[in-house]
Amino acid sequence: MSNKPFLMTPNAKQAENTPDAIVVGGGPVGSSAALNLAKRGAGVTVFEEHAAIGEPSHCAGHISIRSLRNMGLYPLPGEIVENTFSAANFYSPMGTKFSVRLAQPVTAVVNRALFDKYLASKAEVAGVHYRLSARVESLLVDGGFVKGVNLTEGDKKEEKEYAQVVIDAEGISSRLSKQAGLPALNRDGIVYAVETEMDGVQDVESDAVEVYVGRMFAPGFYAWLIPRLDGTAKVGLATKTGNPKEFLQRLMRKHPVASKQLGKAKITQTAFHTISLGGPISRTYANGFLAVGDAASQVKPTTGGGVIFGLTCARIAAEVAADAIKRNDVSSDFLRLYQQRCGEALGFDFSVMLRARRLLNSLSDEKIDEALRFCARVGLGKTLETVEEIDFQGQAFLKLLTKPAMFAALGYFLLLYLSANP
Ligand SMILES: Cc1cc2nc3c(=O)[nH]c(=O)nc-3n(C[C@H](O)[C@H](O)[C@H](O)COP(=O)(O)OP(=O)(O)OC[C@H]3O[C@@H](n4cnc5c(N)ncnc54)[C@H](O)[C@@H]3O)c2cc1C
Known about the structure:
alpha/beta; six-stranded mixed beta sheet; binds flavin-adenine dinucleotide
């Protein structure tokens, strides 16, 4: 796929001149919002500050197959999918292992650069106009309404671009959302991540993701190892405190299991980025403006996965924005429908996952070790064998509560939580 897209369809030509909507950011969420707007007949321009879509990548790209399929995105073409997984192994800092093995693959790891390019090319075919190396510097605000953006493209001087609606999909920096008066991300939910690619990983099952939990190696989050079919792996972690790179070195040298898997591994690529686990910001819309994806912290507080929830909200944002454009009413009174519909789609899952994150963060390493032993003892792995839903974790949890092992585990975790938070 070439870096400088794309086709020049009639819609794209129209968007180039007078877009109905501007999308800031050509990540998966921005392209998905743009695609869905274009499908509804809107002229859309996407501004992406980098010269190539999807690059540089900072993401592991581990995504649920079921959710991708529900969005019409699976199977994915070509080389985008690097591997699929039907198992996960969880390790305590002491090396206690709890495994879940499912009948068929439930997750895929994608090459994020190719995945983002694929979504952008779909949007482009639908008529979206992309401008690369085009950085949005600020919003144009007039009479309390966002009316467009100020941008710089390469060495050219700043220019203004107007549209009825600006969709902010700029990722976690959420600079423009702040300018639009939306609340900042919850600082307490921020974790600092390192994502690497490694050669020479040993002793891993090619269809299982490895997850290392506990404060000793990843306080406030966890570490992961995602094997690819070509023998390389994506390995990373995030931490609430301290330097993620130092924690990664500690994991590679001192973790009773990971040190054996990674002891001889070579890091071939490293990226640093931030993840927001604090749940969606409390207001995601303003006059002429919507925030989606990481910019609005639409990320799972348990796993840090933001692709599926971001795409879910991008679709809703596009529906509401397209209606607003048609009705010639882009006031916040109308655009609030976006937040309402996102709440209906994801609100319950977010509230369950936020509680689960709080519980996990409150556990000492000894308690985590005990908990993994308990899960193995009550046969929770067997109960989870039938799980297909891993994104909408609140709903999945409710379904599983009818199973005795899950019920026992819930009681156990509740007791742990209460003893850690007297
Ligand atoms: C280490 C790590 C691992 C992760 N692993 C997973 C995972 O396995 N699965 C998962 O689902 N999620 C994962 N995530 C989260 C996932 O990466 C994000 O939720 C997802 O990328 C959000 O997409 P987005 O389009 O909102 O933002 P981004 O992907 O960040 O895209 C934002 C885009 O906006 C552009 N941009 C920013 N500012 C401007 C500007 N002013 N003007 C023009 N362009 C601009 C950027 O260049 C970028 O292309 C991970 C995150 C990290 C940090």
